[in-house]
């Protein structure tokens, strides 16, 4: 037993980025739910490897969107561009509770954001607190433009582990190019509020995420130094092409679309290789359908975090509209299983692929489009 368990720990750590590891260590120190989380993880790995379509295990990672409403207009984000693709709203604490009381005991980490500004949700503190009671790493990404004093206190008190702050520049001029409607000075003030309230000076971890583009690449070093002074982890990251189109258009067209944004420094350009009309993404498979679940504010479930339009969703869980399937029922619903069968057949180059593809297209599964262009890149 003692020879076996450390290897599970290593496998779990390998699944998450290094900056989450100190918090994962805390999850491993606290025995609450740990046995269930580890057993579920092992079973999940086995089911993913064998590409099972009906799952016994639960996902071990969740993306839950507290809201798809936002106060900014970032040019490559569909949240403000496409107001009809998905109704707008806020997740209630009750919906979150229903989801998490079933799946929380099995989950190692949760990202509380997807298509909106999570701190706008009035219940966000309570949601985080409830998630933390299941011995789970909790993080979110925020533009941090709106943070009243009480909210700052509530966020720190909630026990959240990681706050990624989207701060693409070291001046209003460069920052405002992508974060349209955002105020650099305001974000700095809000950051200082959080820093002054942090427990033991380092909880939550504050990450300065700097999406590198043509307009801000000259400020990377200045921002890095400022992050150091503030005690933040600096993370310059390459930009993606238009986020609502990643699964629906070939890479060639998407990259052409965003030429004005991509940085000149190839180190920060995700697409720094030759791209022809035939080029697929460098991702060779998709594990989303096995290891993770993406839940929108209203309990609707999407195949992965790149799916923006509601028409591609699987069945909804915990919806307020009478039907109220459990997470397990949704996880093994017809469309979810069909999507898994499709990806599995694609990977195995199975002779069942053509009929499955035909059926998946008929049933409106985005995964049938996505395999044409390459999968969602990590
Ligand atoms: C859609 S946002 C939602 C959270 C929050 N509103 C924010 O911007 O941090 C989720 C993540 O996508 C990132 N993002 C936005 N535009 C991006 C792009 N073009 N390429 C890569 N990441 C992007 C944001 O910085 C954030 O970390
Ligand atoms: S990237 Fe975040 S801040 Fe920008 S519009 Fe989208 S949801 Fe809002
Ligand atoms: S196959 Fe594509 S659309 Fe489907 S879950 Fe994977 S990345 Fe998302």
Helical content band: 25-40%
Strand content: 5-15%
Give me the strand/helix succession.
HHHEHHEHEHEHHEHEHHEEHHHH
Shape from CA axes?
globular
Number of separate helices: 16
Task: Return the average pLDDT rounded to an integer.
Answer: 94
Largest sheet, in brief, is: 8 strands, mixed
**Total beta strand runs:** 8
- Order of adjacent strands in the largest pleated sheet: 6-5-4-3-2-1-7-8
Radius of gyration: 21 Å
Ligands, ions, cofactors:
S-adenosylmethionine, iron/sulfur cluster
* Structural class by helix and strand composition: alpha/beta
**C-alpha termini separation:** 34 Å
Weakly predicted, low-confidence segments = none
Question: Helix and strand layout, with pairings?
Answer:
Elements: H1 5-14, H2 21-29, H3 34-49, E1 61-64, H4 78-81, H5 93-103, E2 109-111, H6 124-132, E3 137-142, H7 149-157, E4 162-166, H8 172-178, H9 184-197, E5 205-212, H10 220-230, E6 233-238, H11 251-257, H12 288-291, E7 292-295, E8 301-302, H13 327-331, H14 334-348, H15 353-362, H16 366-373
Helix pairs in contact: 5-6, 6-7, 7-9, 14-15, 15-16
The protein binds S-adenosylmethionine (SAM) and iron/sulfur cluster (2 copies).
Residues 70, 74, 76-77, 113, 115, 117, 141-143, 164, 166, 209, 211, 239-240, 243 line the site of S-adenosylmethionine (SAM).
